[in-house]
């Protein structure tokens, strides 16, 4: 559904594009949710386990940056994961002000058991795009994300190399 705003052409185009991007993201995530790849976990709990699994132990502040979530949200998510025995907190040995979050053995076993199914579901849903289109979409998303002038956005700091 395009915008019904009838203003300047650049604004109409920007609004239409934002609507398409938002709808595509929402429908993609809804289709992905139907795969039920992380039962018993919220999306943010799953993302927290995934980032700890792939990047290693990190401070709650770093988790906030990676997931683009608020400190309060991350604290609640880590609290709930800790109650489930999936993560534990410890003070950084060099800076006692920093709380480091790490996977427990149960957390590592869980994410290792469910992540391959999740990755397969993502690949299946992304399969509507060719490899070249996926790379182009990734580059455009990165450009849009970095174009905000927010150099602190950590979501785009890692580069991925693909051979086609």
Count of DSSP E strands? Answer: 3
Average of the residue pLDDT scores: 88
Question: Can you identify the CATH class of the largest domain?
Answer: Mainly Alpha
Report the sheet-strand fraction.
5-15%
Distance between the termini: 34 Å
Number of helices: 6
Topology of helices and strands:
Layout: H1 9-33, H2 43-55, E1 58-59, H3 60-67, H4 71-83, E2 87-91, E3 99-103, H5 105-126, H6 131-146
Antiparallel strand pairs: 1-3, 2-3
Helix pairs in contact: 2-5, 3-4
Give an overview in words.
With 164 residues, the protein is mainly α. The protein folds into two domains: 35-127, Arc Repressor Mutant, subunit A, CATH 1.10.10.10; 129-164, no CATH class. Helix content is 59%, strand content 7%. It has six helices and three strands; from the N terminus they run ααβααββαα. The chain has helices spanning 9-33, 43-55, 60-67, 71-83, 105-126, 131-146; strands at residues 58-59, 87-91, 99-103. A three-stranded antiparallel sheet has the order 1-3-2. Strand 2 and strand 3 form a beta hairpin. Helix 2 packs across helix 5 (105-126) and helix 3 (60-67) crosses helix 4 (71-83). It is globular, with a radius of gyration of 19 Å. The two termini are 34 Å apart. 12% of the residues are buried.
